[in-house]
Design brief:
The chain is of the alpha+beta class. The chain contains seven helices and five strands, in the order E-E-H-E-H-H-H-H-H-E-E-H. The protein has a single domain, classed as 3-Layer(aba) Sandwich (Glutaredoxin). It has a five-stranded mixed beta sheet with strand order 1-3-2-4-5, sandwiched between helices. Helix 2 packs across helix 5 and helix 2 packs across helix 6. The chain is globular. It starts with 24 loop residues before the first strand and ends with a helix.
Amino acid sequence: MVPPKRSDDDEELPDLILPIEARDHHRGPLGAKHSLVVYGDYECPHCAHLDPILGQLVRELGDDLCYAFRNFPLVAEHPHAELAAIAAEAADEQGKFWLMHDRLYQHQAELSGELIERLARELPLDMPTYARDVAGGAPARRVAEDRESGEEAGVEATPTAFVNGRLHAGSYEFLPLLAALRGEK
C-alpha cells in the first residue's frame, strides 16, 4: 500500500494542524511517546487494508502509542462513506464507536443504508436514540469537523496518516509505519 500522492514541489511535509485531543477517537493514552492520526473513509479499500495494521501497531507499541481515527469520507467516490461515518459517530454517543468502526470495515464491500442500520441494531444500540442522533446533526457536525481539520492539514486522499505530528510519506505497511513511529530510517 502506498501513501497518498503529494506534488514533487512539496519539499517539507506538512504538520498535523489539530493534535490528538480527548475529543478524538483514540486508542492508547493521550500524551504517549508516539502519536498516529489517520484520516479514513469507511468505503476506501486502502483504509480497510490499513485498519488491521493499525491494530497491530497498537498492540506492538502498547502505551507508547496514541492512535486516533478521524473521518474523511470521500463522498464523490464513495456514496455510503458519509452515512457510515455519521453512524460511527452516532454509535459513539452510546459508547460504541470502536465496535461500529470495526464492523463498518469488516462489511465495507457491502455497505448500504440498510446494512449500516442492521449493524447498529446488532451492536446493539438503542435504536430510537441512534435514529435521533443520526438525524439530529451532532454526528454529522463531528464528521464535518474531522474533514475540515484534515483539509487544513492538506489531506486530499484516504488513508492519510500523520506520524508524530508529521505527514507520513512512506509505505502504509506495518514495518515501515513502525519504523516511522520509532523515528527509524
